[in-house]
Amino acid sequence: MQQSRRNFLKNGSVLLAGAGVMRSGLFEFNKDVKLTGVQLYSVRNEMMKDPLGTLKQLAAMGYKHVEHANYINRKFYGYTAKEFKKILDDLGMTMPSGHTVMGKGHWDAGKKEFTDAWKYTVEDAAIAGQKFVISPWLDESLRKTYDGILSYMEVFNKSGELCKASGMKFGYHNHDFEFSQQLNGQSVYDIILKNTDPALVMQQLDIGNLYNGGAKAIDVVKKWPGRFESMHVKDEILAKEGHEKYESTILGKGIVSVKEVIDLGKKSGGTIHFIIEQESYQGRSPLDDVKEDLAIMKKWGY
Q1: 31-299 belongs to which homologous superfamily?
Q2: How far apart are CA 84 and CA 88, in angstroms?
Q3: Mean pLDDT calculated for residue range 251-277
């Protein structure tokens, strides 16, 4: 099995940059506009080898929206924010959201303000045309104690304020530990949702990842109606190798009642972005799989 997103984020390094100047009032966000896109981690090897060629192939499949998973040294897949936006514009595509881990190095607890690196992250997201700046990981050191995680949720809210100044929202994307780890008798996920301001911090529910944490997506959407402005649309099957019980697969082929979950998200979960992500391929081509995933979504009316 290829490297899981969980391990990629856990083991990968976050490279920090210098100071940035924030922009404001860039977007008028229409919550009625729903879209289907693809998380570029689904085709990560292809994007590393030939980002422009891979984006052209995705556009030819019918994808009009992408979500990045590569922001290093103020560049998306080797391109500045302005350059990457032009590439997408020329292909008739947009990047309404992206994943960049917000970690300890982005917050100066003594000064109670964000470091230059996170200010640059938000600035570049705005330049690239994002609506959501999503952190897809919460370091273990930040969730060792109940008081510790409560304190960091204030940082989440402050990041929401920072993003709001540029017409965006900060967001969080789950994996599995949020459902299996408990602090003070509550799951980490419940703590996050109870202590973040929905007006500032959106939630991107990965409807597949949580199965490895013992949760079911449909139950989570029912428990927290209106909280999921974005979903990672993913199906899961039993893994044949690796350390996780489940791995992702083509939509409709696994144990997740995908259509039921996304339909409920659209109806009562507040979901407007449906982002396809597939991390494992069972010997098939990642590009072939995301093409089939999009065809399935279109068949379902997305």
Answers
A1: Divalent-metal-dependent TIM barrel enzymes (3.20.20.150)
A2: 6
A3: 97
